[in-house]
Amino acid sequence: SEKLGIQIKFQPIDWDMKETELQNGTIDAIWNGYTATDERKEKVAFTLPYMENQQVLVSKKSQNIHSIQDMTDKILGAQAGSSGYLNFEGQPELLKNRVKDQKANQYQSFNEALIDLKNDRIDALLIDRVYANYYLQSEGILSDYNV
């Protein structure tokens, strides 16, 4: 920001409304794990990619979840509007058809979802690997979870 001579204000937003927030001018940029898809490229301008990320399942080790196959009849959480949730809906044969009631509990933020995961209200969370590792390490609980 100093090089450009501009002030930056980081603010949390409702991730499900990110494009609307951008189009309405409530925010000037989306900075986070915003996946560049062909559909999104029609709506917004992207910079060069600045990181690689993957969608992963995070679960307590006590749940014995090590792969998608272990998710049969399990309760899944995901952030509303996230890349993980969009893939969950768009490719039901991968995960949606396995989980309990063929749905994911949707959260406005990953923090809310991670709290429910810690408190056993969901069995696993579909989340960005980078954020999952950051959160679990900063909380000092990474060794208690499978990522």
From TrEMBL:
Keywords for this protein: Signal
Q: Which domain of life is it from?
A: Bacteria
Q: Where is the signal peptide?
A: none
The beginning of the lineage is: Bacteria, Bacillati, Bacillota, Bacilli, Lactobacillales
Work out whether the entry's keyword set contains Signal.
yes
Record InterPro entries: Solute-binding_3/MltF_N
Which named protein is this? Answer: Transporter substrate-binding domain-containing protein
Q: Where is the Solute-binding protein family 3/N-terminal domain?
A: 1-147
Q: What SUPFAM superfamilies does the record tag this protein with?
A: Periplasmic binding protein-like II
